[in-house]
Structure formats: structure tokens, C-alpha cells
Amino acid sequence: MDAFEQQDRANNFKDIDLCVDELPTHQSLGLNWELETDTFTYKVSPEEKPFSRRGLLSIVNGIFDPMGFVAPIVVTGKLLLREIANGSYNWDDPLPRHLFAKWSDWKQSLISLEGLHIPRCYSPTSSCNAAERELHIFSDASEQAIASVAYLRTKDMDNNYHVGFVLGKAKVAPTHGHTIPRLELCAAVLAVQVSEIILDELDIQVNQTRFYTDSQVVLGYIHNQGKRFYKYVENRVERIRKSTQPIQWSHVRTNFNPADSATRTVCAETFHNSMWILGPPQLRDFEIGDLDGKYPLLDPDNDSEIRQNANVKTLKSGIENRAKVFNFSHRTERFSKWNSLVQSINRLKMLARKFHQNDKSDLNTVSTTLMSEQMIILNVQKEAFFSEIECIKNRKPFPRNSSIGNLNPFIDQSGLLRVGGRLKRAEIELSERHPIILPKNHHVSILLIRHLHESVKHQGRHFTAGAIRTAGYWIVGEKTSNRIYHLQVF
């Protein structure tokens, strides 16, 4: 940096000697980045706010915390704000005295956040020295709040483990009609959403993802293979299983669950040494347990969420089929180009054929490539539209929340799910009459959009949409997926 001319530096670097003077705090994307220690810090506004509903809302919303570093502190303010909102106070009316102590203590504690330093790097070792990376996500809930927090566990070449804070989320819990098991289940859904955000945005390879909750009831719901639930639990368990496998979920004791910090009142003065920031101590151990835990339903005969006398006989095979599909889909995430994914399938087929038939012929032909593309799409469809495919095979109506119900889909002779409609007798190509259906925001769909976007020489999303149609694909929510991809590119 010292080699740059003074006029080429940022404004806050022009008048300092980089070799001698202390480096200033730099603002990056709304966060305060302390260059000297390479950590993120917080600056609390000294402006006084009135003791009113509007004043509290201004302070709560004035804390910019997109990564959730101080989510347990912010959610405490949100709980106080909800208590005030339930009292039917006007925006600028002075609040009653019994709330002043809570307001004053929380507001005063925010000053302690200025001493908080969160390392910018997930690990002190460089990326090239990382032998293995694991994502560990914890969830918890109480009558006040639900929360989830994720850490990246990095193993270096010397078999040392380093734990870095990645992302935290905390929400105020609903006030009525929710039991603790239901709130814990909502927290588990939040953990899945956190994992999807991280895996979608993180540029480094993660070898394994694990989830933890201190609720044995929720673990029983997730691992269940023989009982049916009522709608509330059923929808959330299905959401969890859509993105994770039951074997990825484990139990953690409450005192070793960092997400517990955001479900109760936390003191800001000691927050910098809390488990929320540093991560649980068990992640720094060499071994953290296996993934073979069995979690049966707790007291299924008296659980009000379980449909009594309604066993599921075919659920096990469905779970096993989804697990197999998940394994394939999970492996596709290591590819950044559509052609690379297709060619790798080609090579696997060639190796398998040589092994079984001692055939050394070249399989890298057009027909083989089309078969590989078909294999990829079949597995993606089985993962994303498992329920719809089963409904078509069994001639049953689609679920109400199906994203493709209005497309009148059908399964062709190759097993591919295609768009139906009134064009089946039209004298046009099959790919135009009945495009192949793909899910939105799936990694394979993004690879295909990227491939077709490059094929039209980066001419914009409208040209890309035309290329998708010409290629014979119908991506659910295509406009949204296409727009998101172009926002990432440009």
C-alpha cells in the first residue's frame, strides 16, 4: 500500500504514514472494519433518543448487523419493542416508568459493543493449508425467540482445529398458539435456511454439514419413519427433509448450544466472550461424535402433533430414495460449469463400461452426452419434485402448495417430467411442445442458465430466457432465477 501514490489512495489513507501511523477503521458494506487487527467492530451512535416507541424503534433499527454477530443483543431490544407495541402506546407518547429500567439497561449495554472485535477470517491459517472444512449449525428456541447460528470448523495440515463464526439469525417468537416443540421445530427450519444461504454464497468447499438441536422431540420428528403428523409439524418436517438428511441431525446439550444465547436475555458487557461469538468448545476437539444417532419419537401415544392410528408403511422407502438422490445432487455442487458436470458423468460411464465389459471404445459421443444430461436432469427432478412424481405415478392430485401444479406436468417415456398443455398435436419439436421442467435456484439449474447465458455471448437475461426455451427447458420461476443470476454476474 505504501508504494501507491498518495492521490491514488482512499481519502482516509491519504494523510497517514502506512509504515508508522495506526491504521484507521474502514467502513466496508456498512460494517466497521478495523484494519490494524483485521476484525469487524461496532460504533454506537451517541445521539440521544426520546423514551418513546419511536425512539426505541430508531435504536433497534440503527444497529446494522447483517451477519448476526450481535443478534442476541438486538433481539432483546425487539422483545422490548414488542412489549411496548402490545401496550397500545402511540409513537411519541412517553412510556410508563416500569419500562424505563429495561429501556435504560439495554440502551446502556449497547456501549459495550464498541469493545467487540470479530475476526474477519474464519481461520488463522490460509486456504491452501486447510485439509478439511465442516459447517456446524445450531438451533434453539424459547417462548421469547428462535435462533440459529453457524460456524466453520477448519482442520489444518497439522491436525489443529479452528472455529470461525459464519452467520447468525434470531427472530422474536410468536406470542400465541405455539408450544415449545413447535418453536424448536421452527428453529430447526431456520437452521436449514441458514445453511442454504451459506452454501449458496460461500466460495470455499465445505466437506460436511451438520445440524444440532437440544430438543429430543424435534429429533424424533425429523428421524420418524412410521407416524404421520398434523399439518403444522408435517410441513416443517418436510421442509427440513427437502434440504437435509435425518442422519445430519444430532443432539447437543443446552449448556453447549450457542444458539441458546439468543433465546434469552444476554448481558452485552460479557458478550465478547460468549459461546455465540467463540463457538462451542466441543468443536475444537479432535472428535465430535459420529452420525449414527437414533432418535425415536418421545411418547408418541400422547403427542398431540401425531395422528393416532395412522402409520406410514411406505415412508421408509421414500426417505431412502430421497437420500440417494440427495447424494447425487450434493455432489453436483462442486462443479461450476454445466459442461464439466456432463463430461464427468461421461467419464464415469466410460470407466464403468470398461470395467464390466472390457470395452475400450470411446463413449464421448453426442448420444452419450445427451444420455448424461438426461441422467442429471432425472436425478434433479426426483429430488425437487418427488411428491409430484409420486402423485403422477399413483394418479393422485397434487399438493396444494405444488410449484408445478398449474403446468399440467406428465412423465414421458424416458422418465422426464415435462410441461403438459394443448400443444401435444402441434407439428413442432417435442422440446418446444413439452419443455423439460427444472426447479428454480437449484445448483444444476444455475449451471444451465450460466451455460446458456454464455452461449448467447452475455447479451442479457431476455436473450438467455430465449435460449432456455430453445434448448427445451422450463425452469420454475425462471424470471426470478435468471434475474438473480444476472445480479450475481453484473
UniProtKB/TrEMBL annotation:
Family matches, as InterPro entries: Retrotrans_Pao (IPR008042), RNaseH-like_sf (IPR012337), RNaseH_sf (IPR036397)
Molecular function GO labels: nucleic acid binding
Pfam families tied to this protein: Peptidase_A17
SUPFAM superfamilies on file: Ribonuclease H-like
N-terminal signal peptide: none
The protein's name: Uncharacterized protein
